[in-house]
Amino acid sequence: MTTSESGDAVDAGGGESNERELRMAVVLDVLPHGRTDDDRPRYKKSPLAYALGESDFRLVELRLDDDSDVSIGDRVVVEPAGERVDVAEVRDVEYTALSNTALSELEYVVDEILTEHESRFVDFYNDAQPITIRLHQLNLLPGIGKKLRNNILDERKRGPFESFADLEERISGLHNPKDILAERIMSELRDDDLKYKAFVRWDAES
């Protein structure tokens, strides 16, 4: 379950909402000497990392333990706090706060998450529902208008989609359904002013 900027709930389908489960993030960049704009002496600065949540696409800054062994591409626990290893603190950050390396890694990591959790994201196409009388969740995806949306809704009544390949085969005009999701997720990460966010969730917890 995610929320729009206005507070409207938007269920992206297949979200991992069990609080007892470990919430993981993929490391985008590691700053062993902290941020470059931190003018404190080096010995006073903790190593930092930027990461992307696997279940919620939450962008976070991690304050790492001084003796941590964390590298780009590693998966780390962000919640619950008691299960963290090498991570002392987690806080939300905006897209514009990411380092250049983190920005360059972001699209690759989004693609990896979509690939590794394919069934979860295929279920977005299976489970998407109307947001308002005039707007459907499927219409949040780039390139999906009324006709293509209705084709998806009609076809899924015949049976759930099993994979991205199944989607592409059964829906005429729907090309690269995984890439369509990736494009939407990147838009939600970049633009804080989007009214509806189907995939990116920001939490106050840290």
Write the layout of secondary structure elements.
Blueprint: E1 2-3, E2 9-10, E3 23-31, E4 48-53, E5 59-64, E6 75-79, E7 87-92, H1 100-116, H2 118-127, H3 146-156, H4 164-170, H5 177-190
Antiparallel strand pairs: 1-2, 3-4, 3-6, 4-5, 5-7
Helix pairs in contact: 1-5
Order of helices and strands: EEEEEEEHHHHH
| Overall pLDDT metric | 87
End-to-end distance:
18 Å
**CATH fold group of the domain at 23-98:** OB fold (Dihydrolipoamide Acetyltransferase, E2P)
User: At the first level of CATH, what is the class of the domain at 23-98?
Assistant: Mainly Beta
The helix count comes to: 5
In percent, how helical is the residue content?
A: 25-40%
Task: Give the full name of the CATH homologous superfamily of the domain at 23-98.
Answer: Nucleic acid-binding proteins
Question: What is the overall silhouette?
Answer: elongated
Count the beta strands. 7
Description:
It is built from five helices and seven strands. It has helices at residues 100-116, 118-127, 146-156, 164-170, 177-190, and strands at residues 2-3, 9-10, 23-31, 48-53, 59-64, 75-79, 87-92. It has 206 residues and is an alpha+beta fold. It has a domain at 23-98: Nucleic acid-binding proteins (OB fold (Dihydrolipoamide Acetyltransferase, E2P)). Strands 6-3-4-5-7 form a five-stranded antiparallel sheet. It has a two-stranded antiparallel ribbon with strand order 1-2.
